[in-house]
Amino acid sequence: MHAAxxxxxxxxYPEHAAGAWPAGVAYPPVEPDRFxxxxxxxxxxxxxxxxxxxxxxxxxxxxxxxxxxxxxxSDPDARPTCLLKLTTGLDCPGCGGTxxxxxxxxxxxxxxxxxxxxxxxxxxxxxxxxxxxAGNRAxxxxxxxxxxxxxxxxxxxxxxxxxxVARNLPWAPFTSLYV
Length: 179
Description:
- The chain has 179 residues and is mostly helical.
- Helices cover 53% and strands 0% of the residues.
- The relative contact order is 0.08.
């Protein structure tokens, strides 16, 4: 019996070697559905400022939700609630973020930091990233870009994970992180 080596090919053509695509075969492009065609048409016709304005609208809706719901006077189990907290009793990584936003919008930074320090810490960076992106996209501004290395992002995410674990530990001094 003949043993096939690692470069052996099975098929009538030599170009059909293991892992190779057949030469000259073209696959027809997938036709987009009606909704995708609509979105592409709207995007092609939209002015440059439409996407930043839509993003700003989403941020505005989030801030309006925080202001109208007043999460500082809600019961911890009031609706809507965090699914992780509801099922496990643990604080999720974002727990306290809405309350922190409410306090930031009322210019009470110490109270905001008490509810979610990392959220408050990241707000100036997120705001600058948005302003530089939106200004460039909508008006062609060339603002200095905030360059954040993958190592810094990884460190921030590791810190956020450690914070998320520490705030759920049941003994002092970690109980002071409970919100």
